[in-house]
Amino acid sequence: MEKLVSLCKRRGFIFPSSEIYGGIGSTYDYGHYGVLLKSAVKAAWWHAMLQERDDIVAIDSAILQHPRTWEASGHLANFTDPLVDCRACKQRFRADHLDQLACPRKPSKHPGEGAECDLTAAREFNLMFETTIGPVKESGAAIFLRPETAQGIFVNFKNVLQFARKKPPFGIAQVGKSFRNEITPGNFVFRTREFEQMEMEFFVPPASAAEWFAYWTAARREWYLELGIRPDHLRLRPHEPEELSHYSSQTSDVEYLFPIGWSELEGVANRGDFDLRQHSEFSGETLEYFDPRSGERYVPHVIEPAAGADRATLAFLADAYDEEEVEGETRTVLRLHPRLAPVKVAVLPLLRKDGHPELAGEIYRALRGTLTCEYDEGGSIGRRYRRQDEIGTPWCVTVDHESLGERTVTLRERDSLAQQRVGIDVLAAEIERRLSATWTTPKLAV
Ligand code: ATP
């Protein structure tokens, strides 16, 4: 993980937030390549949800919602973690994570195990961030930053049903920020207090809920595999009955073998009719589906695949990170799926003279209309290749003296390092062809 964190900082993917003020615990900012990578992850999710099917619609609900939302959803009463304080070191820990945490004074021990540790009894701590609406704190109404995007979907069920002309089975998808006042955030962007979720609520006739649960569990696993995650680093873990959330009758986690061990990447839950019934009861609105053909009226059941954009980005980065020996030197390379790579093509003039920059500039301007491209003429060609390898650019186009006469360029492939001479007039088509081809990580072979 340290190598990945340092690459992310060095190449401007992700860095600690508010660094000039000493940082603010477990909060991160995304730099240029981080923004492009996370956007590509979200775009791939939207693609799978919207473009590849016609039974899901999009929504973007507000972060601030009516406080009754969180009463109805159960978050006010149940969205808690057990918290213990240590009277000796004045630190706080999640009581159910003690065996994964280190004592701040004696890191070889867990909190509570050191001679000086003095833990309080566990008490429940609500993870929602509370603030007030209105200009004066005292007279304002208490309101919460949403801890998940899902409830913004349920409260809009009626609106969507009316306008989207859909009937169950159909889904509503949302991507957006969520906030949880985690007691022990950490492991880079794996667990932070502010993060982005990609959630989809799929409303189905009650009798078909189990079938759709199986469908979405398999489909979500497949999504990560198609984007190049190594199959031996991905698994499904069904929850034990005692682990299930209050609303869920069935949950399976898609887990990834992070550098910190197997951990949840995404949860797929069968939420039954819990949410629609709760919101119906608390709001007084009828939230059900009426089938005009059969005359049947029912509250749909919900299957929810809930993923984290930051956690997925971390998994793709961890899976892509590679080091190899090339001509006696260590090459660091991000073997990202080309669809996720922040930059698809780098255009590099071999020399900064002799017409190379002019022709390279021309090629760059032609490509950037459809592809995320970068133009770089600074430093030796070897250094420029290494820089592109580190940010995961799948192809580099090099313009040399032959390019001027023959109108051909060298197309260098990140993974195999193969170089091919390609005509400038067919370059864009060749890159598009490679971009849409199936890609598997060469890390599988090792
Ligand atoms: P965990 O058990 O890791 O706390 P969870 O089961 O509470 O996660 P969900 O409520 O199912 O998580 O949220 C769906 C997804 O949102 C998670 O699978 C994860 O990818 C992401 N997520 C949840 N909490 C965080 C967080 N604090 N930081 C980053 N991502 C998060």
Walkthrough of the structure:
A seven-stranded mixed beta sheet has the order 3-9-10-16-13-12-11. The protein is an alpha+beta fold. The chain is 30% helix and 28% strand. Strand 22 and strand 23 (419-423) form a beta hairpin. The two termini are 20 Å apart. Helix 2 (32-51) crosses helix 9 (309-320). It is built from 13 helices and 23 strands. It has two domains: 2-67 and 138-317, BirA Bifunctional Protein, domain 2; 343-445, Anticodon-binding domain (Rossmann fold, 3-Layer(aba) Sandwich). The chain binds adenosine-5'-triphosphate (ATP). Adenosine-5'-triphosphate binds at residues 148, 180, 182, 191-192, 195, 197, 264-267, 306-308, 310-311. Adenosine-5'-triphosphate (ATP) is lined by residues 148, 180, 182, 191-192, 195, 197, 264-267, 306-308, 310-311.
Strand order of the largest sheet: 3-9-10-16-13-12-11
Largest sheet report? 7 strands, mixed
- CATH fold type of the largest domain: BirA Bifunctional Protein, domain 2
CATH architecture of the largest domain: 2-Layer Sandwich
Low-confidence stretches at least 5 residues in length (pLDDT < 50)? Answer: none
How many domains would you count in the coordinates?
2
Q: Hetero groups bound?
A: adenosine-5'-triphosphate
**CATH homologous superfamily annotation of the largest domain:** Bira Bifunctional Protein, Domain 2
| Mean pLDDT over the full residue set | 94
**How would you sum up the global shape?**
globular
What would you report as the Rg, rounded to the nearest angstrom? Answer: 25 Å
- In helices, the fraction of residues equals 25-40%
Count every beta strand, where a strand is a DSSP E run of 2 or more residues: 23
Oligomer: single chain
Helix/sheet category: alpha+beta
